[in-house]
Amino acid sequence: MEKEETIIYFVTENIHKFNEISDLFSKTKTNYNLKRKEVETVEIQATNLKEVASFKLNSVKGQISGSYFIEDAGFFVDTPLNGFPGVYSSYVMKTIGNKGILKLIDNFDETQAHFTSVIALYFKPLDVSLFFEGKIYGKVSKTLRGSGGFGFDPIFLPDIIPNKTFAELTTEEKNKISHRGKAWSNFIKFIKENKY
Ligand code: ITT
Questions:
Q1: Ligand 1 in contact with 152 (CB < 6 A)?
Q2: C-alpha to C-alpha distance for 64 and 59, rounded to whole angstroms
Q3: Dihedral, CA atoms, 131, 177, 109, 75, nearest 10 degrees?
């Protein structure tokens, strides 16, 4: 049997997020193995992602005995929607979806958008909660494009590859530049600096 100290759990109901993190994890040398865990979490409505992530992390306490992390992401249309849907991303995706977002910004030529990812880690060896953030900036596509990725990927054009939506990239290509990939790099920096 695997020793609990060598496992790090990613608590998520979203298989796409798990697959992206798995790809990042497979390219990282650590002393840990990654496993997915589905346990009850509480997602509060707050004004920023870190607050949501912190609450969600605490809601897992007592349900897992080793180290674990959760991740909270949001899609922010800065121009012209002042950051909407942001912390409401899940609800907006389930209700109006990408087509609804495009309808809201139909009359606007200039758009600015970004994704933010916050990884919240409960790190058992130090008995601490730690937060790692990543962002990526870009624009909103006029139409839905691409069949890869998930969520808002078909309408996000990253500034660094402006002719492709996230949904037109492979998982590997998206991970290299994405909010989640950047949050992950910060996470790994911590693990390595502390020689775990
Ligand atoms: P958890 O169980 O991990 O909480 P979730 O799907 O609720 O899964 P989030 O709260 O992080 O995940 O995501 C909020 C919304 O943003 C949700 O509708 C996702 O589909 C979408 N989203 C998250 N990351 C994304 C990404 O990298 N690309 C496109 N959409 C994303």
A1: yes
A2: 11
A3: -30
Does residue 109 or residue 30 have the better pLDDT?
109
Is the minimum distance from the CB of 134 to ligand 1 under 6 angstroms? no
Q: How far apart are CA 89 and CA 152, in angstroms?
A: 9
Domains (ranges, CATH) in the chain? 4-193 (3.90.950.10)
Contacts within 8 Å (CB) and 24+ apart, 183-187:
183/71, 183/117, 183/118, 183/119, 183/132, 183/133, 183/134, 184/21, 184/24, 184/119, 184/132, 184/134, 185/134, 186/119, 186/132, 186/133, 186/134, 187/69, 187/119, 187/121, 187/132
Position 24 pLDDT exceeds 90: yes
Burial category of 22 from C-beta neighbours within 10 Å (exposed 0-12, middle 13-18, buried 19 and up): middle
**What residues are labeled active site?**
72
